[in-house]
Amino acid sequence: MKKIFLLMAITLGPSLHAFAADSADELLKFSDRARGGLKDGVVWDAKIITEEDGDSSERTFTIKAKGNDANVEALTPARNKGEVFLFNDRNMWFFKPSLRKPVSISARQKLSGQAANGDIASTNYSRDYDATAAGSEKVNGEDATVLMLKAKSSQVTYDQIKYWISKKTKLALKAEFMTLQGTPFKVAVFEYKNKMTAEGKTFDFISKMTITDAKFPKNRSIIEYTKPKAESLPASLFNVNNLSR
Amino acid sequence: MTLFSKMALRNLWKNKRRSFSTGIAIIAGFTGLCLLGGYIIYVEHFMRVSSVYVNHTGHIAIYKKGGVDGFYNNPRKYHLSANDIQKVREIVAQEPAVEFTTPILQGMGLLSNGNKSVPVVAFGINPADEKRIQSHPQVATWTHELVPPANEPSIKDAEGALAETISVTKQLGTLVGRKAPFDKLSANERDVQLAARTFEGDLNAVNANLGFKHTTGMMMAEDTSLVAPLSVLQNLYATDGATYLAVYLNPEANVSGTMKRLQEKIDAAGLDLQTIPFNDDAIGLFYVGTLGFLYIMAGFFIFLIFSAVALSIVNSMTIGILERVREIGTLRAIGFTNAQTAWLFTLESLFLTAISLCVGYVLAQAMAGTVNSMNIRFDPPGIAGDMQFVMKPDTWFCALLAIPIMIICLICAYIVSKKLVNKPIIQLLQQAN
Which of A79, A94, A111 lies closest to B195 in CB terms? Predict the structure, then answer.
């Protein structure tokens, strides 16, 4: 009998592992949709409220995303109006009207407070990270599947993410952003009070992401997402060569 | 000239072989010490001028209190505002030891060529002040290899039509895909952008032109160093202030004394600023670390050489006097007192040592001149590129070295001769026979 179990384990082990990996990827792909990871165009506004060392500031942006690309335009404060962050696949560019050429920047650099450049429009975790299932835990009383995400490239925003996805809604509830050594340095929690209709379906869409410094919880950035809507966006909007024209 | 002096000189001339062998021991040892000291002094001057002038630390840097450590984390809190700079300049202007001051703005950022960005550590300086620094006599004397030749365009010329022009190291230029000389590049290739977070925390970028090349003299800074006109960096960081005010003193000025007076005046004016000397490891870690290591090594070698030289001199002198027991006996027999005889031998030693030290000094200068003219180059650790092996024996340092050698020779001659003259005359004459 023991031999039969051993044989089953040897023969079925790899396929069970593949099944687990597939479901982790599927789960990640599904949760991405509610954070803007849609193949067709999607537009929303975002307000970043930063609280750091007792100071507070606010910035607003309009984000236009399509597939792997995103165009983020600063609306306020007035001194930043017209500035554009362009996500071109995994490359990221910064441009403002006074520049002769766009500047290549890193998604890892700080945008405002705890929010990195990549946080505002990096919605495609399933493309950027390899997911593996790491058990189940409760987040605020809700059952969640824990995924460990490892970066596929050094160009993505974080090296590792511990990601909690609700078993009920399949939406991300919480994320711990970790260093290469596995130490969490930022924690994010997500809320989904927006609704979005795309690809013929209406689904919950992210409304708030709160990113907190793991060591100094008083330092945090809140990204509020408003007016999400599906919209057909031209490819030229994401062409870096068009920025300086 | 006294009778004793004449006799001492005649004795030296009479015993040429003995005088020559003792003299050679003194000359060789003293020349070696002068050359070693000359090299250490050159390196100290090179490091000091490199730190103070080429790397824009100034003899004294005036920061916001806590700014040395805090500026990079919180530039908004720890920068010098335009108002701070104006007030502190009024205070500094009252100090006669101050030659000039210049505000320096430092920061991190990115240098982008339109396709790729590389991280940089940026220095912003007024081009007119940079011109003064590059043409400063101290720089011309000690670190002329680290600044561009006067006729070569550099950040000092970044005014008028060149006001947007920046300077980068050759290595940084290569990293961003641009090869030196940068002023020969096409307009499109020279067109670069600088990006950084402003003091308010926003991402900002400005246009610039790549035009000049410089070197920091420090290997660890060669792949990130960028020097820009102060106005370009102030635009980039959205400020009208600076990181610190570099205060340049007259070369003879006492740095610590001047700094103390300035700090007292700054405190009295109620300004929340601190003065830091260039040789404080808070701002001059490379200078302090390199020289600390050099001094320990050099101190050890000087001790070894000095000990060998001293033993050699004592040995030559002792043998020289011991060989002359009969002469001592004769002098005593014709009526010289013990003290007079001992004094005669000491005087001989004084003349021989003085002549040998003078010859040693001239030889050291001649050897240093010859070595310097050969332009021998080497790669010292931590220094960017190669540098000339230079020795500059300093007259005062050599004089300082001469004192203990002179004292050793005199003591040795006096003790040995005194010991001999105290013996009975008959014994001295018999011993000689």
Answer: A94
Q: Does the beta-carbon distance from B114 to A112 stay under 8 Å?
A: no
Interface of A with B in 35-94 (CB under 8 A): 50, 53, 57, 79-80, 83, 94
Nearest CB neighbour to B115, from listed A98, A99, A104: A104
Burial of B312 (0-12, 13-18, 19+ CB in 10 A): middle
Q: Which residues of B touch A113 (CB under 8 A)?
A: 201
| Shortest Cα distance, chain B CAs vs residue A95, angstroms | 8
What is the structure's pLDDT at A121?
63
Model pLDDT for residues B378-395, shown as the tens digit of each residue: 887 766 677 788 898 999
ipTM: 0.75
Residues B204-240 have pLDDT tens digits of 999 999 999 888 777 788 899 999 999 999 999 999 9
- Say how many domains are in chain A: 1
- B110 contacts A105? CB cut-off 8 A: yes
Q: Which two tokens stand for residue B62?
A: 């005036």
As a whole number, mean pLDDT of residues B392-417 equals: 90
pLDDT at A3 over 50: no
Q: Inspect the interface and report whether the beta carbons of B112 and A96 lie closer than 8 Å.
A: no
Q: What is the CATH number of the domain that holds A201?
A: 2.50.20.10
- Paired sense of beta strands B191-197 and B203-213, if any: antiparallel
pLDDT at B432 over 60: no
Give the amino acid at B22: T
* Interface touch B195/A103, C-beta < 8 Å: yes
Instruction: Report the residue of chain A nearest B77, measured CA to CA.
Output: A53
CB contact under 8 A, A80 and B202: yes
Residue B214's nearest CA partner among B169, B150, B182 is B169
d(Cα B56, Cα B42) in Å, to the nearest integer?
A: 20
Q: Which pLDDT does position B318 carry in this prediction?
A: 82
pTM: 0.76
Q: What is the pLDDT of residues B241-292, one digit of tens each?
A: 999 999 999 988 999 999 999 999 999 999 999 999 999 999 988 889 989 9
Q: Tell me the two tokens of residue B5.
A: 């002096």
Contact A41, A233 (CB under 8 A): yes
B260-266: list long-range contacts, CB under 8 Å, 24+ apart: B261/B95, B262/B60, B262/B62, B262/B91, B262/B92, B262/B95, B265/B91, B265/B94, B266/B62, B266/B88, B266/B91
State residue A109's pLDDT score.
Answer: 67
Q: Check CB contact of A105 with chain B, cutoff 8 Å.
A: yes
Q: Do B112 and A104 touch (CB under 8 A)?
A: yes
Instruction: Express each pLDDT in B96-140 by its tens digit.
Output: 999 999 999 999 999 999 888 999 999 999 999 999 999 999 999
Q: Cβ of B203 and A100 within 8 Å? A: no
Q: Is A100 on the interface with B (CB under 8 A)?
A: yes
Domain holding A225, by residue range, is 32-242
Reference B108, options B125, B127, B121, B89; nearest CA is B121
